[in-house]
Amino acid sequence: MPATLRSHLIALQSAVHSAPEAIFYRKLKSCPPSPPQWDRISYSQFYLHVQKAASYWTEILNGHGIKEGDVVAAWLSGMSYDDVVLVFGLSLAGFIPQLISLRLTNSDVVTQLLIKGESKAVIHEPSYGDIMLSVDIPVFSNVTAEAIDDLNIPPRQFDIAETHDREDKAFIFHTSGSTSGSPKLVPNRYGWIDGLWPKAKACWSSCSDEGQDILPCIGSICHVGQMFLVLSAFQRSACIVQPTSLPYSPFEFQTMIRDCGVNRLYVFSPILSRYLQLAKTDASVLQSMKSLRQVLYTGLPLAEEDATWAFKQGIKLLNMFGSTECGPLLSSSAHADPAAGLKALPGTAYRFVPIDEDDRSPERLLELVVLETSSDIPDKSLLDPDGTYRTGDLFSRVSRGLYISRGRNDDWIKSLNSLRCDTKSLEENVRATCSDLILDCVVVGNERASPALFVEPRISMDFTELSQLIIDRIRPFHSRLYLHERITNSNLVLIVEAGTLPRTATKGNIRRRQVEHDFKDRLDTVYASVSRL
């Protein structure tokens, strides 16, 4: 049943009306090797660009029989201002944007996603040139806001609906990891967006300082993390700064503070950990961190000693736990040590279910289950038969209503940028293609730029030659994956003697986390060498 819901477009319109001249975006106009410089784009300018993009693409798409309510895919890096304009322009025009990251480069997999999402057209990053997709839909190259301006197309007045059915789709995202070679569709409902605003407010700690909130991008607009940041910015009339790359260096971070006035930070914890390690020896970095109104980190848990050290230094940390399917789920308390635990955000309804009913210890592991009445319950296509959503995320309770993350109950790891990787599917592919070469294998790489493969060999062969042979055999499967999931360098196939890898006592399964721990020095060396190539 239609209901009055606060959509992303209503939030944008409200920001334009309340602060039209406030700066929405600091757009890069120079990149390395030149020092970075940024243009200023106000909320009113952004909204005008969105209206013009909506007008332009309405004319183009209508000419191909594509109408309001149809799904239109946007295959983008998601890092540029023009990408943000396109996404919101398509939405304003009444289309449902299906957002596909350029990190997914295999055209066959993209074709599958277009078919699953029922996209009627695809608009891609201009750098992709003439892409080949085995699906019979129109394919267009994205057009910059400046190019649309030059066409002198008068912006249409689009009505922004105030009522929607809660189940109506606003966007279609994809999981950041691939299951059996293909990401999973995550429809984003208007009801989900309506429930986001109280959560965004709770995650955005208030500050007595005057002036606009300014913060850098956390990622691609094609992923939920950056979409959450943009919608939070609308809510506060805040400004977003485009970095030269992700992750950006501590030097660029300090440059953005100096030149753009950055006073907040949304960041993935592995990157924050690097900043904190540097801050322990560099007083200027520590002072930059302390000057921020808030440092919100997400993705993976920050090491407890790092979180406690930063808190004692006066760095205003907030730990937020979320997922692609649900968005923000839990957060630490503002002005408190984030190591103390996480609490549910406003408007949510969760249950923490023991994974072992016989375990009565205080430290027993609990799975977070999202209930049907929760504002962030995902699309029906993702739910269990009982109407709940089992996140697969594990916690232990530290006190009433406070929980500490304990990882996942499945075979996923998270990369340096907190994008997920399904280790089980990678291992199954290795076993299927290399059964004559290997006895067993395990994929590791938590908080690394890409996964690595440990192998116990079945045959006697030079380890370097064996590593390359394995790479050759798994290459077709890996070409279908996101960039952060691929193993394409033979240095990341590490051969060890049979029986070397640590195993569980009962079932004899390889202990993934223990492998990461035992071989940390070797992994550090390998990743350092690969990054220099």
From TrEMBL:
<comment type="similarity">
    <text>Belongs to the ATP-dependent AMP-binding enzyme family.</text>
</comment>
<protein>
    <submittedName>
        <fullName>Acetyl-CoA synthetase-like protein</fullName>
    </submittedName>
</protein>
<dbReference type="InterPro" id="IPR000873">
    <property type="entry name" value="AMP-dep_synth/lig_dom"/>
</dbReference>
<feature type="domain" description="AMP-dependent synthetase/ligase">
    <location>
        <begin position="27"/>
        <end position="352"/>
    </location>
</feature>
<dbReference type="Pfam" id="PF00501">
    <property type="entry name" value="AMP-binding"/>
</dbReference>
<dbReference type="GO" id="GO:0006631">
    <property type="term" value="P:fatty acid metabolic process"/>
</dbReference>
<dbReference type="Pfam" id="PF23562">
    <property type="entry name" value="AMP-binding_C_3"/>
</dbReference>
<dbReference type="GO" id="GO:0031956">
    <property type="term" value="F:medium-chain fatty acid-CoA ligase activity"/>
</dbReference>
<dbReference type="InterPro" id="IPR042099">
    <property type="entry name" value="ANL_N_sf"/>
</dbReference>
